[in-house]
């Protein structure tokens, strides 16, 4: 593996804006963008497609091992292919979102995907976003950021994203699902969501996207 000197690790809870921010930061720095959430979504989607019981840890781990996964970002847009099929939209459905926590909590799946993430970061300068980038995947990088925002703001943002795709949204139910996912991520035994001790915390609730991106780019240029 590399020495993590060219990694920007961005962590935070659901709806904090990690993917959008990380994509913009990567473009500004001319780094690769690693959407780790898409990897877990892809593993979830494949297991669902195969009719695998998501509570069967061994079967889900086997499915993930067998998965032919390709993630690319042409023109800054993440495209995800599983076993030759473009699933970029399919992995973002509410059904996958509701069940992804079962994959998050599977240590064998996490072990496989963490290895793939580290291999990606070893090949090129990378902006990586997720829930354990700074604590587990790239613990030696000096550039760690924890993005957060109020539950209300995170719900509003996620609802806007879903409506833009034509999905009907019950914001009260969505807020409950986001809070539940936060709790599941924080409670899981393997790689729980938490802020790394040496990460800077940015509360994006009252910030524009441009302000958040500028703050991280400035920080990265100072420490990398």
Q: Terminal Cα separation, in Å?
A: 17 Å
The major beta sheet can be summarized as:
5 strands, parallel
Architecture (CATH level 2) name: 3-Layer(aba) Sandwich
Q: Using the coordinates shown, work out and report the CATH topology.
A: Rossmann fold
Helix percentage: 40-55%
Any idea what the shape is?
Answer: globular
Radius of gyration: 16 Å
What's the number of structural domains?
A: 1
How much of the sequence lies in strands comes to 15-25%
Integer average pLDDT: 92
Could you list the spans in which at least 5 consecutive residues all have pLDDT below 50?
none
Number of strands: 8
Describe the structure.
This protein has 224 residues and is an alpha/beta fold. It has a single domain, classed as Rossmann fold (3-Layer(aba) Sandwich). Helices cover 51% and strands 15% of the residues. The protein has 9 helices and 8 strands. The strands form 2 sheets. The protein has a 5-stranded parallel beta sheet, with helices on both faces. A 3-stranded antiparallel beta sheet has the order 3-4-5, with helices on one face. The longest helix has 17 residues. The radius of gyration is 16 Å and the shape is globular. It starts with 6 loop residues before the first strand and ends with a helix. The model has no long low-confidence stretch (mean pLDDT 92).
């Amino acid at each position: 593996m590399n020495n993590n000197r060219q990694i920007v690790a961005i962590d935070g809870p659901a709806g904090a804006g990690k993917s959008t921010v990380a994509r913009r930061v990567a473009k500004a720095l001319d780094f690769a963008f690693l959407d780790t959430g898409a990897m877990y979504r892809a593993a979830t989607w494949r297991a669902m497609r195969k009719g695998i019981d998501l509570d069967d840890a061994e079967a889900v781990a086997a499915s993930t091992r067998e998965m032919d996964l390709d993630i690319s970002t042409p023109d800054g847009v993440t495209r995800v292919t599983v076993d030759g099929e473009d699933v970029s939209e399919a992995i973002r459905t509410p059904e996958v979102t509701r069940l992804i926590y079962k994959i998050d909590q599977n240590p064998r799946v996490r072990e496989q995907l963490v290895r793939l993430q580290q291999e990606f970061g070893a090949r090129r300068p990378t902006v990586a976003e997720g829930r354990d980038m700074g604590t587990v995947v790239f613990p030696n990088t000096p550039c760690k950021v924890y993005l957060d925002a109020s539950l209300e703001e995170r719900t509003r943002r996620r609802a806007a994203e879903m409506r833009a795709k034509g999905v009907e949204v019950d914001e009260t139910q969505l807020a409950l699902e986001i809070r539940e996912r936060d709790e599941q991520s924080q409670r899981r035994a393997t790689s729980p969501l938490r802020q790394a001790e040496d990460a800077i915390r940015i509360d994006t609730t009252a910030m524009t996207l441009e302000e958040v991106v500028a703050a991280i780019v400035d920080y990265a240029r100072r420490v990398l």
